[in-house]
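Protein modeling request. Please complete all fields; requests missing the sequence field cannot be processed.
Requester role: graduate student
Desired output: 3D structure, token encoding
Chains: 1
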Amino acid sequence: MNYEELMEKAVEASKNSYSPYSKFAVGACVITDSGKIYTGCNFENSSFGMTICAERNAIGSAVADGERKIKAVAIYSPNQDNCAPCGACRQVIHEFCDNDADVDIILKNKDELRVITLASLLPESFNL
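Delivered output (128 residues):
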């Protein structure tokens, strides 16, 4: 699956967002090393701290299916061009990769895709 197709799935996932408080819909699509695809959308909670980001939702689905290595993550929001993952999501993505430089983060700016590495978003990351 190419990055345009991953982004299309992220766009579709964003349509299922449950974001009544922020009105900030986000969809994500993850591809694992095995080639499996998982999507997720953000869903909010009135206590805000319990809100789940689209990226973590998609990664959680992959983990629940036994996957442990992420190859790329496409992220889309109709509210913002180049909607990058928050700090918590960056750390979760890092948890499920061998090398930050090997994980592509795919963002969308109007009709163009922008591909950056996790290493550029999370410099000097850590693992236990």
